[in-house]
Design a protein that fits this description.
By secondary structure, the chain is of the alpha/beta class. It folds into 2 domains: about 5-165, Flavodoxin domain (Rossmann fold); about 175-255, Alpha-Beta Plaits (2-Layer Sandwich), CATH 3.30.70. It has 9 helices and 9 strands. The protein has helices at about 15-30, 65-70, 95-105, 130-150, 165-170, 175-180, 195-200, 225-230, 250-255, and strands at about 5-10, 30-35, 50-55, 80-90, 110-115, 185, 205-210, 215, 235. The strands form 3 sheets. The chain has a 5-stranded parallel β-sheet, sandwiched between helices. The protein has a two-stranded antiparallel ribbon with strand order 6-9. The protein has a two-stranded antiparallel ribbon with strand order 7-8. Strand 1 (about 5-10), helix 1 and strand 2 (about 30-35) form a beta-alpha-beta unit. The two termini are about 25 Å apart. The model has no long low-confidence stretch (mean pLDDT about 90).
């Protein structure tokens, strides 16, 4: 298969950088790569004659509920090759094994899974110099992984015994409700210019514009609104740092739905 449809979600930009680096490698080898924003994609429209890629961040030892919903909604296949890559700060445990079992049960050929460390943004962050080094290493790992997929050397390895339990935690709405209570996001009206970018970026349509942006109760702390706010008007007050992104929001928004 010379066409790869790569479905991704990226919060602060780490996953987008990894996916973009893998795309460049695939294209050097003559593959056509189509990028799709997972939060906007229709799983019913997936072309099972193409190789499928999945890219997303780790969250709560698993990933975000809307990413899980996308994975669960994938159509049944008959040997369609599929690979995944996730980005994480330290550890997951509730991703590779659980995702692999879901995909195999749906009839996909799981050709490879890779977890790549990128700079942490929640609940802690690294100094700028350390973050730059982590990004360079992470992108190198992404290039190597993409080449392994092309050469048929990638693997989808086994995972911890409690993988499904950790996966269930990240899919649980009550767990995210607790996290939202511990780390509430606030909007500084003295800084906000009402540009609406946070509304456009939110993957769950959780932000609406009143006099100023208003957050609903479906936030999963993906940090997009914080990372890309041009006025740095959105933050988590209990933390002293900002989850700033080194990419521009247009790089994600310009990707097809």
């Amino acid at each position: 298969m010379r066409i790869i449809d790569f479905y991704f979600f990226s919060g602060t930009g780490n996953t987008f950088m990894v996916v973009s680096e893998m795309k460049r490698v695939f294209e050097r080898y003559g593959f056509k790569v189509n990028l799709f924003r997972m939060e906007k994609a229709d799983s019913c429209m997936i072309d099972l004659t193409h190789m499928i890629g999945l890219g997303f961040p780790v969250a709560l030892q698993g990933t975000y509920p809307f990413v899980w919903r996308f994975i669960h909604s994938l159509p049944r296949a008959d040997g369609t090759p599929i690979f995944m890559v996730d980005t994480l700060g330290l550890y997951s445990g509730g991703v590779v094994g659980s995702v692999g079992r879901i995909l195999k049960a749906k009839g996909y050929h799981t050709v490879g899974a890779m977890e790549i460390r990128m700079p942490m943004t929640f609940p802690i962050s690294q100094p700028e110099e350390e973050s730059a080094w982590i990004i360079r290493r992470g992108l190198e790992e992404a290039r190597i992984y993409a080449e392994k997929i092309i050469k048929g050397d990638a693997e989808w390895r086994g995972t911890p015994i409690l993988s499904d339990l950790m996966a269930a935690l990240s899919q649980s709405e009550w767990a995210w409700k607790i996290l939202r209570g511990l780390y509430p996001i606030r909007i500084d009206k003295s800084r906000c210019n009402r540009c609406g970018l946070c509304i456009e970026l939110c993957p769950t349509n959780n932000i609406r514009m009143d006099e100023y942006p208003v957050l609903g109760d479906k936030c999963y702390l993906c940090m997009r609104c914080i990372a890309f706010c041009p006025e740095r008007a959105i933050s988590i007050p209990r933390m002293k740092w900002q989850a700033n992104s080194i990419i521009e929001p247009a790089e994600i928004l310009n990707v097809r739905a």
